[in-house]
């Protein structure tokens, strides 16, 4: 009985292919090392995420918690109650003092509420003299542009159920009301807490701040 020997086959790669593979591996290691170095340098250069490149504050130095808000219709915050609207703005008019210098900043959330309140007053027919009316017309144009960009900036992607409706001309369309829909938000109470605690540190210097609609509640 004879045995059949098995022959093992070997594949030999050309030297150029081996050298090219080794070179690619070395280059990959170098590039990864450079990437890690850049990330490390970047983290050292940015000790806080709350600064612009010129070291001026870009955001409040707080990390806001995530909260839920369910949209609801309410009789509060309507067209004519100044005190309701004044209650959403903290002492200090939504301004904060950040840093060691005399640098004051408006918190964007309160700027946006201020613009909404301006629309409310104009739509509610609040009396204005001629000079004030001209100012308000310029202000409402600013606020319209500002709020449009703030809505785009927030890019809220919450889905609101749509329903079939009829336009005034009788055409069918899809519509959404939004009431009862829950949105994921950032904790606006934390923002108010920070703003009011910050105000306590500079309120003695606030005499030069002009009174505004929030003086209805915050007369100091």
Could you please describe the fold and organization of this structure?
There is one protein chain. The chain is of the alpha+beta class. It has five helices and six strands; from the N terminus they run αβαββααβββα. It has two domains: 30 residues; 124 residues, no CATH class. The strands form three sheets. Strands 1-6 form a two-stranded antiparallel ribbon. The longest helix is centred in the N-terminal third of the chain and has 31 residues. The chain starts with 14 loop residues before the first helix and ends in a 20-residue tail after the last helix. The relative contact order is 0.15. The N terminus and C terminus are likely disordered.
Measured between the Cα atoms of the first and last residue, the distance is: 112 Å
Instruction: Tell me the domain tally.
Output: 2
Mean pLDDT: 76
Strand/helix succession: HEHEEHHEEEH
* Proportion in helices: 40-55%
Total strands: 6
Going by helix content, strand content and strand pairing, the class is: alpha+beta
Largest beta-sheet details? 2 strands, antiparallel
Overall body shape: globular
Given as residue ranges, the uncertain stretches (5+ residues, pLDDT < 50) are 1-6, 34-49, 211-220
Radius of gyration: 30 Å
Please list the strands of the largest sheet in the order they lie side by side. Answer: 1-6
Amount of beta strand: 5-15%
Number of alpha- plus pi-helical segments: 5
């Amino acid at each position: 009985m004879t045995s059949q020997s098995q022959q093992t086959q070997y594949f030999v790669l050309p030297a150029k292919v081996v050298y090219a593979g080794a070179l690619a591996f070395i280059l990959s290691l170098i590039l990864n090392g450079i990437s890690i170095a850049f990330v490390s340098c970047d983290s050292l250069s940015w000790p806080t995420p709350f600064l612009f490149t010129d070291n001026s504050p870009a955001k409040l130095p707080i990390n806001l918690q995530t909260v839920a808000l369910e949209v609801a219709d309410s009789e509060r915050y309507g067209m004519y109650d100044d005190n309701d609207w004044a209650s959403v703005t903290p002492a200090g008019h939504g301004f904060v003092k950040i840093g060691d210098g005399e640098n004051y900043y408006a918190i964007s959330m309160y700027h946006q509420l201020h613009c909404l309140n301006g629309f409310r007053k104009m739509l509610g027919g609040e009396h204005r003299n001629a000079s004030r009316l001209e100012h308000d017309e310029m202000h409402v144009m600013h606020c319209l542009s500002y709020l449009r960009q703030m809505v785009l900036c927030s890019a809220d992607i919450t889905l609101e159920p749509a329903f079939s409706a009829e336009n005034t001309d009788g055409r069918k369309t899809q519509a959404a009301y939004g009431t009862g829909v829950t949105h994921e938000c950032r904790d606006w109470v934390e923002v108010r807490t920070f703003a009011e605690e910050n105000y306590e540190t500079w309120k003695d210097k606030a005499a030069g701040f002009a009174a505004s609609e929030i003086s209805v509640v915050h007369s100091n």
